[in-house]
Amino acid sequence: MSPSLKTYLGLSRTPHGLLDMSTPLLAAFVWLDGLPKSWMIPVGLVTTFAAYTVGYAVNDLVDRLVDQQRFRRGWREANGYIDAVMPRHPLASGHLSRNQAILWTAIWGALAGAGCYVLGRPVFVLFLAAILLEIVYCLMWRLTPLRVIVSGIVKTLGPVAAVFAVDPRPSLSPLLLLFAWLFFWEVGGQNIPSDWTDIEEDKDLGAQTIPVLVGTVWSARLALAALSLAVLLNMAFLAVIARQGAILLAALSLGIGAYLLIEPGVLLVTKRSREAVFRLFNRASYYPVALLVAAILAKVLSDL
User: Fold this and answer.
1) Closest Cα to residue 52, out of 94, 95, 90, 14?
2) Please, are residues 183 and 116 in contact by the beta-carbon 8 Å criterion?
């Protein structure tokens, strides 16, 4: 029996990927203070979807043996966790064969690569770098918790590539602020909470992650510190980019950051429960799309 489309989408964690797509869209929109050239919109949307689809699939392909060990040891339920909306790790659980997963990944990889090439050579190079670093990130699982740095870089290369797509010669200062802002969002709102959800399994399997290394108390503090930096760097980026409606966007962004990042981060520090981890991860996952909506709203209001 052939796997369902839902199974393939589970391999690529598509619900999460769709939210992640907002990050490069946000970067391009704010950088330009509006929409790019008309031909870039459909090409960019398809390319972005394909890139995130292949990125998550590569993660599961490389982690197949590790994930199989987790299933054999009894992977805990993750009800309420956004990455568990669709079949979780269908390759490791046996719902997809390795060849089926490779074919799915190759098709989307070819589409993403072609789209990136059309958008510009720097975009294509950054896409290849992101895929290679994703593989490195997975292979570092038992080596060092510093792989969190690789994770932050991988997630940030998407919006950086989007900037190069709309501006082949971007200014360095705002680009570095964009990188740092989204790097700390990924570390505090995505990577640490994601590793926390598997902390018991990772301890048994000898993983080297932040929660395993420093425990839940310091993991919660590090996550909150990273998220606080992300909110501050977001303000700094908007101040440097100085686009029309920047004051309104800064106010909206500050409120969004407080609600989606800081509040669940504080709750994690005080509660340190599995439910608080899910709350932070899920809230932080909606951060880019909420900011994209805010950026569009600020632009529309400033143009009135």
Assistant:
1) 14
2) no
Q: Which residues of 221-252 are buried (b: 16+ CB within 10 A; e: fewer)?
A: ebbbebbbbbbebbeebbeebebebbebbbeb
Return phi, psi of residue 7, to 5°: -65, -45
Q: Which amino acid is at 220?
A: A
Domain with 263, as residue range(s), is: 5-303
Number of domains in the chain: 1
Of 144, 131, 166, the residue nearest 51 (C-alpha): 131
* Residue of 72, 71, 103, 99 lying closest to 87 (CA atoms): 71
Residue 58 structure tokens: 């590569």
pLDDT tens digit string along 79-93?
666 766 677 788 988
CA distance 189 to 263: 12
Distance of CA 26 to the CA centre of its chain: 13
Picking from 100, 127, 98, the residue whose alpha carbon sits closest to that of residue 24 is 127
Distance CA 97, CA 250 (A): 47
Q: Residue 81, SS3?
A: coil
Q: How much of the chain, in percent, has pLDDT values that exceed 70?
A: 96
3-state secondary structure of 116: helix
Tokens at 181, concatenated: 């802002």
| Four-point Cα dihedral 22, 28, 30, 34, nearest 10 | -110
CB count within 10 Å of CB 76 equals 13
Q: How many residues are listed for the chain in this entry?
A: 304
User: Which residues, including other chains, have CB under 8 Å from residue 158's CB and lie 6 or more apart?
Assistant: 20, 23, 24, 27, 48, 51, 52, 130
Q: Which DSSP category does 190 fall into?
A: I
Rounded to whole angstroms, the Cα distance separating 72 from 268 reads: 29
Residue 180 structure tokens: 């740092």
| pLDDT tens column, 235-261 | 999 999 877 778 899 999 999 999 999
- What is the model's pTM? 0.94
What CATH number should be reported for the domain holding residue 50? 1.10.357.140
